[in-house]
Each structure stands twice: as structure tokens, then as C-alpha cells.
From TrEMBL:
Entries under Pfam families matching the protein: ABC2_membrane (PF01061), ABC2_membrane_7 (PF19055), ABC_tran (PF00005), PDR_assoc (PF08370)
Subcellular location: Membrane
Protein name, per record: ABC transporter domain-containing protein
Keywords assigned: ATP-binding, Membrane, Nucleotide-binding, Repeat, Transmembrane, Transmembrane helix, Transport
InterPro entries per the UniProt record, alphabetical: AAA+_ATPase, ABC2_TM, ABC_transporter-like_ATP-bd, ABCG_dom, ABCG_PDR_2, P-loop_NTPase, PDR_assoc
Residues spanning the membrane: 175-195, 215-234, 246-266, 286-311, 318-339, 399-426, 829-847, 859-885, 944-966, 972-993, 1053-1075
PANTHER family: ATP-BINDING CASSETTE TRANSPORTER
Region of interest (Disordered), ranges: 445-466
PROSITE patterns, sorted: ABC_TRANSPORTER_2 (PS50893)
One GO molecular-function entry: ATP hydrolysis activity
Residue ranges of domain ABC transporter in the record: 483-735
Basic and acidic residues composition-biased segments: 446-457
Organism: Populus davidiana
Length: 1083
């Protein structure tokens, strides 16, 4: 069991380990448990301990002999030191010296290897080596203790268990599936109403419109499975972990995941066919209705399976989305509609047969155009239906419908098998340590050396004065402030689950009559059992709550708290340690100082202050390391904790809150963090921490304690005293409370004696006893005293809502975004690669077709090359930016609460940084495709082509940002994006020209940015071409065909240019509004 105590209080941890100890002793089982910061009483429950350092075992033997072994090595555990804390620190080079116990022998560092040699030479080590040298005797272990199977259950039981689990997850994700289906229904209704005007035309022109509606149905059902990609990526870490524990094989998860999606494929396909089939005007035979439904069902199934397969191979959201976009580009490119099979280069026609969409296209067109109503004979012996099929390279026999259907089911099986194999054999992404480049590191270190060389030698301070130095180093002045709170209550709406169990109150009270004070230079701990309301109280006092109802009086320096000004003088270290992953430690601190320190402070002073904070929080050794992503790369948990403290401390706050700064850390790391916290408090700041499992050293580093019990009630508030004497004196003075044992951790003891079970046993209410005690009276009198503003003081006031001007805010945000983008190759490099690959593909497939215009199909083929670039490359930009923006949005929430900048400055920086990258994308696309496709060479035409490309890619990026800002997560954003892509596709003017769109939908055509992109592309290249070509059997010029068929005119290019510039601007400002107003963080 790995770190089972993280997030639990010490009393709960003790109870859990006690149960495990009894289980092991009674059943004669074997248990190996790793713990962080175990209390002495918890440590004493173990029989053996394995102490490791540098990947080697230093000690392996009984817990009761561990201290004696190290004492024999010359190191003794102090009386009030926990054994576990001592064991971790005695092997550390920085902490070892304090435990040296031989006064007559000078201390010398004992390395890990030396400890190992001493252990091997000891009796314990020799005994262990002797046991390990003996051959294993099978008779020692009965057969019943051996496992003869990898998995604990039979195959059928494994399948049923995974099926039940998957069904439960789907039930709890009902919103996702209902939302998808509702989207599809709405899209089907829109599609039906758009194509309704084509239902009476049974001719070549009508067939072309009908082909557009069928192709749209195919791509809508095909892309409806895209949400499965993000859902699979999110679930993969849990599945891979469970698979590594041999809970079940990959097939046991994969098969239920596939089977349970079949009903949704049936429902979606049936809804689409039922809504659109007869209204659009397909062939009225019932059998053909059923055939179209069956084909769409098979296509939807294949798409869902393909997305799961892609997610299982690439495993991260950005990579899976990027590769998925490339696959969709290839699928649509070779699908047979954008470019018919006869128009493909002969050596690329094999690509027509390897994608699922091809078989959907073949099946749905054969089902329609071999119907009786298309049997009308044209010139010669060809029917109208065959003529349509031949022009698109789909002139197959009727039985090929069933081959297409079988091929789609075959693709589904193939992708599902690939999904199983990927989960079976592919390993999850490994965690990596992100550091800054060597070149940049050498530059920074060189600059640092120069700065140090300028400092006089007499400024060095002896090591024994380190603490004095650290308290004096805080060179920036600040106003020490008290915080008082009286009768604070906090309510939330009663959850529905509690109402169903008989709770009748409309509001649930989480905090009850909380009264207390936080003072400058005093380090205060907020403690209590899990669920007591510690973090809730801290969030209420700091103004971080986004919901609920707060009552009571909160004052700062004697004046009523105003959140806008309080945010400027306070810091809040969140438990989750949220930071931008691609920024170094130093850059994170510089960024915070840049935006949060007042502009009156000069740059040199700011730089010095940043360096001093780095030294105070002991971050100097890692200041050039990238922060990274928790669990995947970058800093360790302990380093992130210290960075969080530094980022808040550099704002020079008067009051600083820290939510569980030692959770998830081992004893030594917790000691380092608490040393940093103590340094902060020593500067005269008001410092408050919530804390769960403190060791004796950590607990007694605090000056005051507020202890809470469940229900949000205070049961102790006051000084701790030397060795916690005041706390112990208070609780031991209560009749019936057990006395504390010698060398027992006071933090653990107080939680044990004030637990709910102890209250019940003693028939006491500790909250009531506290309110009747002199301690409460002292606290009340102190609050009344501090509630009066000191003479000569004045309320907090600032002339501006933010420390820096809007331009400085924008500059700082742009600086950070630039660094983040430059160090994000997974996002930026991948989209450049996709752009190059896609452009080369377009150039090859449409090679020199730009001037080969002889009939309407040739022109439609060229429009198809523009359409696929607009839709698919635009969608790739839109989808790949979403995870990046979502990651930065979590950082934004923290920075907004800290009043670092206005949302407008942040959002403008976010949209501005995209411009150079989109410019590069547009340049790559134009440089490759323009000469390869062979458009008419002209400086104006090339510039128009570049302008339209740039605007198109840019508004798609901004659209992705906008969708994320409007939704609570990437998953919901991707589902909403699917509906948006549908509209952008449907009203682009490619599937159905604008002149054929019904009057009630024409407004949507003009509001659709893709219609303006296609207008700009086609008109700028062919709007002035007077070459005569055959259009549906008639001779017309290219320019007149564009005007008659599409409504595109050369003299309207100015309007098109203005519209294309307006869309990215509009999306950017809506994004700025949404990112500022929307807050999906619930506290």
C-alpha cells in the first residue's frame, strides 16, 4: 500500500494502521506499506521497517532495533523526536550533523554506502544475509497460499465485473450521452430544414445537392464518435494502473466498452435517418430507408471504435487530438466526395479503399441512385442514376452495398482488436523531469555569476546567522495587519442526496459561530479531523468561496473586509499547487512579482527581492527547472509546495493563508516546507496554515492553534506554549480526558481525545466546553480589542483596481505566454508538422489541378481542396488549442483571485501570442499548396490566398479558445465543438450553395465564417477568369458560373476581406468576456 495516509489526519491514520496490524497478525498475512510523516504511535505499530536512500536499502529489520543501530553508528534520536522523522533525516547530508552523539569525536559525514556497510557488518545484517542465502523450501508455503492464475476471477466473472463498472460509469456520465444525442437531434432537424428545398428536383443538378446532403449525413455520424477520443484518454490512466495490478486483462475492459456503445450508435443512427430521410426527399421505399439506417449505424460504430483505438495509442489529449485530426484529413481527402476516385492520381487510388468513410459513401449513394426514380434514361443507354454514380467514380453494382456494410463492420472489429492490443502491450507515458535548455541555463548562470561578482565581499553573512539574515532580507516594507472574525457562519444548499435521506433543512450549515483572530508575526495552525471545516473556514475568511451564504463580521486591521482591496494585501497558497507548467521556478516568481508589486518599486529592487524570496524558501538549486505537470514531469510535490509559497510571498502580502502545505510530503520535505513557512512568519506577516498529520517538530513550529470538530465548531483557540504545554493543560483539565503519554505527539493526542467516539464515551461536547471556558472569553476580548482600528490608522484603499497598469498587465501576460508557447512543442511543433504533412498531401492529391478547369466537376474539385483545408485544418487548430487553454485556465482562476490582472489583459495576451504561430502555419500552407495545386500566378492572387488562409486559421484558433471559456471542461468543450463544426460545415456553401439555402436559414449562411473563407478563396482565384467551360451540359464562363451557382462576385472581395477580419476579432472579444465572467471552479 503506497502512501495511504495522504490527506488523512493522524488519528484516522492510526486507526487504519491498527486495523491492518490486527489483520496481518490474525490471518498471518504479509503487508508492505509506505507512509508519509507517520506519527510515532503509528510507526510503533509496525513490526519491521525498510529504510531506503538513493535506491538502496540502508536498514531492514525490526522497528525496535532501528534506533539502536544508528546509535551504534554514532547518531542518537532526541527525546521528543519521532523515530520515523529521525530515520529519514539521519541519512540526509543536510540534516545528519545535528544527531551526532559523540562529543569527544569530531563529526564527519557518513554516506549512505557507509551506513549500508555498517548494516551488513551488524548482527541484523548478517542474520538477514544468512536467511537470504538459503534456498527456498517449497514445504514452507502451503499450496493454498500460492496463486496459479494471473487474475483472481474466471474470465466470465472478469467480463461481468468490467461490464458492470462500465455501465455504472455511463450512468454517471448520463449528461455526456444525453448532450451528444440532443446535439445530433438538433443538427438533424437543421439539416432537414436546410435540404428540404432540394426534395422535388430529380435531375443532375438536384442529384448534386442530394449528394451533398448524403455526404453531410456521413460526416456528421462519423464525427459524432469524436467525443469517445477524449473520454478514453481521460479514463486511460485508471485503466492502465488497474491493468498493471492485474485486476483484469485489457480485453475485459475493451469488449464491454465497445458493446455498451452499440445502443447509442443504434439510437443516433435511427434518430438521424428518421428525422431527415423523408423530409429531404430520398427514395421513398421502406427498404432503402432501413438500408440507409443500417449503413449509418455501421459507420458510427466504426468511427467510435477508431477514436478509442487512436486514444489508446497516443494516450495524451494533445497528441491524440492532433493525430486524430490527421486521420480525419486523410479520411475526408480519400473518401470519394471532395475528390472523386477518377480525379485522384492513379498511383494514389489505393488510398480510396483503406478508409471507412469510402464504404459509407459507396453504400449510401448506391442505395439512393439505384432506386427506381433514378432509372430515367439520358443520352445513350445510361440511366440518370448511373450517370451520377459514374461522375463520382462510384458506379458499382447493387451488391456492393452489402460489401460496404461488411467492410464497415470489419473496420469496427479491426479497431477494437487494435484497442485491445494497445492496452495490452503499450506502456503509459513515463514521468520526466523538465529542465531548461543547457544553452539558456549557461546564459542565466553567467548572468548570476556577474551579479554576484559585483557584490562586495564584506556583505557575506556567517552561516550561524542564517535565520537572522533571512528575517532581515525582506527589504520591501509592508503593513502588518490583524484579521479578526466574529460569529462567522457558512451555509450551502442542502444536497439532494441528504434530502432523500430525510434531512429537511433547506440549507446545510458548515461553519458555526466561528470567532478568533490572526496576528502579525504569529504562525497559526487550523486543525481538526477530516471534514471538520478547516479549508472551508480558510476559504470563507480569504474570500475564495464561489457559492454558499456567509454571515458574520470579518475585519482587517479593525476595518470591515472589502474583498477587492483584501486580495491586494493577502496571499493564498492552494493545496493543489497550480502553476503554468512550461515556466521555470524563477520565472514563475518573477511573473508574480511583476504583476503584484506596486509600480513605485524599481526593477533592481524587484529583482533583489525575488532573489531574496528564492533564498528564503530554499529554491535556489531548482530555480532554472521547469515547473512541469504534476505526476508527469517537472518538480516534486515538495518543490511545488515551496514554489507556491514563494509565488505568494513575492507579492509582499501582509496576510498569507496556506492550505495543507505539508500534505503529500515525507517528514524531511515537510520540515523543509515548514522551515520556509516559519521564515515567512518571522518577517512579521500574519500566517495561517491548515495541517493534517504534523510530526512533533512540525506541530510545535506553530505559535497558536485553532482546533475544530465536525460541524464547523471550534473546540480550542489559543497559544500552544512550550512543548504544547498550554494545549495539554487545557484538555487534561477536562474531567475524564486521558493524560498524554511521555514523548507522545500532542497533535495526535488532541485529535484522539476530542474525537466523536471520545465525546460520546465521556458524554461531553467539547465545543460547548470551549465556549464556557476562560480561553473563549480571552479570545472574545482579544477580538473586541483588535476590532477597533489603531489610532492614526486608515482603511485599506488603492487608487487602481490592480497594482499595474493595463499595458504592464498585458506585457507581463504576453511574456509568460511567449515562454509557455516556445516551450510547448507538443502543441506548437505538432501543429506545424500537421500543417506541412496536410499541405503536402493536398499538393500531391490536387497536383496541378488549379488550371485544369473544363467542367463544373473540375471547379468543384478545386473548391473541395479549399473546403477540406478550411474545415479540417481549421478544426485541427480549434481542437488542439483547447487542452492548452484549459490547462492555463486553472492557473488563471488562482491569479484572478489574487487580483493580478484584468481578464481583458490576460485574454488579449492569449490571443496575441497565437498570431505569429498562425502566420507561420499560413505561410507553410501557402508556400506548399499554391505552386503544387497550380493556381494562376499573380501577386494579388497569392496575397489574397495568404490573407484568407491566415484569417481562417486564426478564427478557428480563437473559436477553440472561446469554446473552452464557455464550458467547464475540455470534454464538454469538445462535444459543443462537434455541434459548432456541424454548423460551420453545413452552412459553408460547399455541400449546398448559398443561393440554394432556404430563406429562413440564409442568415446563418452569412454568419458562418467558413462561407466567407470559401468565398474568399474561390473568388480571389477564379472570380476574374473568363474561360468558358461546360456547366451541367451548358457552356458558361468560370466567373459567371461562380456568380450564378454560388453567388460569388469579384467586386465583393472587399466585403469578404472585412468579414474575414471581423470574425477573429469578434471571437477574441467574446473569449475575453467569457474568460472574465465565467467561473467553473466550485469552492
Amino acid at each position: 500500500m503506497d502512501e495511504i495516509s495522504t490527506g488523512l489526519d493522524s488519528s484516522t491514520t492510526f486507526q487504519i494502521v491498527t486495523c491492518l496490524q490486527q489483520l496481518v497478525h490474525i490471518t498471518d498475512s504479509t503487508a508492505l506499506i509506505s507512509l508519509l510523516q507517520p506519527a510515532p504511535e503509528t510507526f510503533n505499530l509496525f513490526d519491521d521497517v525498510i529504510l531506503m536512500a538513493e535506491g538502496k536499502i540502508v536498514y531492514h529489520g525490526p522497528c525496535c532495533h532501528a534506533l539502536q543501530f544508528f546509535e551504534d553508528c554514532g547518531f542518537k534520536c532526541p527525546q521528543r523526536k519521532g523515530a520515523a522523522d529521525f530515520l529519514q533525516e539521519v541519512i540526509s547530508k543536510k540534516d545528519q550533523a545535528q544527531y551526532w552523539c559523540h562529543a569527544d569525536i569530531p563529526y564527519q559525514y557518513v554516506s549512505v554506502n557507509q551506513f549500508i556497510e555498517m548494516f551488513k557488518a551488524s548482527n541484523l545484517g548478517q542474520t538477514l544475509a544468512e536467511e537470504l542465502s538459503k534456498a527456498y523450501d517449497k514445504s514452507w508455503c502451503p499450496n493454498s497460499a500460492l496463486s496459479f492464475s494471473i487474475y483472481s476471477l474466471r474470465k466470465w466473472e472478469l467480463f461481468k465485473a468490467c461490464m458492470s463498472r462500465e455501465l455504472l460509469l455511463m450512468k454517471r456520465n448520463t449528461f455526456v450521452y444525453v448532450f451528444k444525442t440532443a446535439q445530433l437531434m438538433l443538427t438533424a432537424i437543421i439539416t432537414m430544414s436546410v435540404f428540404v428545398s432540394t426534395r422535388t428536383e430529380v435531375d443532375l443538378r438536384g442529384a448534386n445537392y442530394l449528394m451533398g446532403s448524403m455526404y453531410y449525413a456521413l460526416i456528421r455520424l462519423f464525427t459524432n464518435g469524436v467525443a469517445e477520443l477524449s473520454l478514453t484518454v481521460i479514463r486511460l490512466p485508471a485503466v492502465q494502473k488497474q491493468r498493471s495490478f492485474y485486476l483484469y486483462p485489457a480485453w475485459a475492459y475493451s469488449i464491454p466498452a465497445s458493446i455498451l456503445k452499440i445502443p447509442f450508435s443504434v439510437l443516433d443512427s435511427l434518430l438521424w435517418t428518421g428525422i431527415t430521410y423523408y423530409v429531404i426527399g430520398y427514395s421513398p421505399e421502406v427498404t432503402r430507408f432501413l438500408c440507409q439506417f443500417l449503413l449509418l449505424f455501421a459507420l458510427h460504430l466504426a468511427s467510435t471504435s477508431m477514436c478509442r483505438f487512436v486514444a489508446s495509442i497516443f494516450q495524451t489529449m494533445v497528441l491524440a487530438t492532433t493525430v486524430g485530426s490527421v486521420i480525419f484529413v486523410l479520411t475526408f481527402l480519400f473518401g470519394g466526395f471532395i475528390l472523386p476516385r477518377p480525379s485522384l492520381p492513379p498511383w494514389l487510388r489505393w488510398g480510396f479503399w483503406i478508409f471507412p468513410l469510402t464504404y459509407g459513401e459507396i453504400g449510401i449513394t448506391l442505395n439512393e441512385f439505384l432506386a427506381p426514380r433514378w432509372k430515367k434514361m439520358l443520352n445513350g443507354n445510361t440511366t440518370m442514376g448511373n450517370s451520377v454514380l459514374t461522375s463520382h467514380g462510384l458506379n458499382f453494382e447493387g451488391y456492393f452495398y452489402w460489401i460496404s456494410l461488411g467492410a464497415l463492420f470489419g473496420f469496427t472489429i479491426l479497431f477494437d482488436l487494435g484497442f485491445i492490443l494497445a492496452l495490452t502491450y503499450l506502456k503509459p507515458p513515463k514521468m520526466s523531469r523538465a529542465i531548461i535548455s543547457k544553452k539558456r541555463l549557461s546564459q542565466l548562470q553567467g548572468r548570476e555569476d556577474q551579479e554576484r561578482s559585483r557584490q562586495p565581499e564584506n556583505e557575506s553573512i556567517p552561516a550561524h546567522n542564517a535565520e537572522t539574515r533571512k528575517t532581515k532580507m525582506m527589504v520591501l516594507p509592508f503593513v502588518p495587519l490583524t484579521m479578526t472574525f466574529k460569529d462567522v457562519r457558512y451555509y450551502v444548499d442542502t444536497p439532494q442526496e441528504m434530502k432523500r435521506h430525510g434531512f429537511r433543512e433547506k440549507k446545510l450549515q458548515l461553519l458555526s459561530d466561528i470567532t478568533g483572530a490572526f496576528k502579525p508575526g504569529v504562525l497559526t495552525a487550523l486543525m481538526g479531523v477530516s471534514g471538520a471545516g478547516k479549508t472551508t473556514l480558510m476559504d470563507v475568511l480569504s474570500g475564495r468561496k464561489t457559492g454558499g451564504f456567509i454571515e458574520g463580521d470579518i475585519r482587517i486591521g479593525g476595518y470591515p473586509k472589502v474583498q477587492q482591496t483584501f486580495a491586494r494585501i493577502s496571499g493564498y497558497c492552494e493545496q493543489s499547487d497550480i502553476h503554468s507548467p512550461q515556466i521555470t521556478v524563477e520565472e514563475s516568481i518573477v511573473y508574480s512579482a511583476w504583476l503584484r508589486l506596486p509600480p513605485e518599486i524599481d526593477e533592481q529592487t524587484k529583482s533583489r527581492f525575488v532573489e531574496e524570496v528564492i533564498e528564503t524558501i530554499e529554491l535556489h538549486d531548482i530555480k532554472f527547472s521547469l515547473v512541469g505537470i504534476p505526476g508527469r514531469s517537472g518538480l516534486s510535490t515538495e518543490q511545488r509546495k515551496r514554489l507556491t509559497i514563494a509565488v505568494e510571498l513575492v507579492s509582499n502580502p501582509s496576510i498569507i493563508f496556506m492550505d495543507e502545505p505539508t500534505s503529500g510530503l515525507d517528514s524531511r520535505a515537510a520540515a523543509i516546507v515548514m522551515r520556509a513557512v516559519k521564515n515567512v512568519a518571522a518577517t512579521g506577516r500574519t500566517t495561517v496554515c491548515t495541517i493534517h498529520q504534523p510530526s512533533i517538530d512540525v506541530f510545535e513550529a506553530f505559535d497558536e492553534l485553532i482546533l475544530m470538530k465536525r460541524g464547523g465548531k471550534i473546540i480550542y483557540s489559543g497559544m500552544l506554549g512550550h512543548h504544547s504545554c498550554k494545549l495539554i493543560e487545557y484538555f487534561e483539565g477536562i474531567s475524564g480526558v486521558p493524560k498524554i503519554k511521555d514523548n507522545y505527539n500532542p497533535a495526535t493526542w488532541m485529535l484522539e481525545v476530542t474525537s466523536a467516539s471520545m465525546e460520546s464515551e465521556l458524554e461531553l461536547d467539547f465545543a460547548k466546553l470551549y465556549k464556557e471556558s476562560p480561553l473563549y472569553q480571552e479570545t472574545t476580548e482579544l477580538v473586541q480589542q483588535l476590532n477597533k482600528p489603531p489610532p492614526g490608522s486608515r482603511d485599506l484603499q488603492f487608487s487602481t483596481p490592480f497594482p499595474q497598469s493595463r499595458w504592464e498587465q498585458f506585457t507581463a501576460c504576453l511574456w509568460k505566454q511567449h515562454l509557455s508557447y516556445w516551450r510547448s512543442p507538443e502543441y506548437n511543433l505538432s501543429r506545424f508538422i500537421v500543417m506541412i504533412v496536410a499541405s503536402l498531401l493536398f499538393g500531391i492529391v490536387f497536383w496541378q489541378k488549379g488550371k485544369e478547369i473544363n467542367n463544373e466537376q473540375d471547379l468543384i474539385n478545386i473548391l473541395g481542396s479549399m473546403y477540406i483545408a478550411v474545415i479540417l485544418l481549421g478544426i485541427n487548430n480549434c481542437s488542439t488549442v483547447a487542452p492548452y487553454v484549459a490547462t492555463e485556465r486553472t492557473v488563471l482562476y488562482r491569479e484572478k483571485f489574487a487580483a493580478m490582472f484584468s481578464p481583458l489583459a490576460y485574454s488579449l495576451a492569449q490571443v496575441t501570442i497565437e498570431i505569429p504561430y498562425v502566420l507561420v502555419q499560413a505561410f507553410l500552407y501557402v508556400a506548399i499548396t499554391y505552386p503544387a495545386i497550380g493556381y494562376y500566378w499573380s501577386a494579388s492572387k497569392v496575397l489574397w490566398y495568404f490573407y484568407v488562409t491566415f484569417c481562417t486559421f486564426l478564427y478557428f484558433v480563437y473559436l477553440g479558445m472561446l469554446l473552452v471559456s464557455m464550458t467547464p471542461s475540455v470534454e464538454v468543450a469538445s462535444m459543443l465543438a462537434t455541434a459548432v463544426y456541424t454548423i460551420l460545415n453545413l452552412f459553408s456553401g460547399f455541400l449546398l450553395p448559398g443561393k440554394k439555402i432556404p430563406k429562413w436559414w440564409i442568415w446563418c449562411y452569412y454568419l458562418c465564417p467558413t462561407s466567407w473563407s470559401l468565398n474568399g478563396f474561390l473568388t480571389s482565384q477564379y472570380g476574374d477568369i473568363d474561360k468558358e467551360i461546360f456547366i451541367f451540359g451548358e457552356l458558361k464562363t468560370v466567373s459567371s458560373f461562380l456568380e450564378d451557382y454560388y453567388g460569388f462576385r469579384q467586386d465583393h472581395l472587399g466585403i469578404v476581406a472585412a468579414a474575414l477580419a471581423a470574425f477573429p476579432v469578434a471571437f477574441a472579444f467574446i473569449f475575453a468576456y467569457c474568460i472574465g465572467k465565467s467561473n467553473f471552479q466550485r469552492r
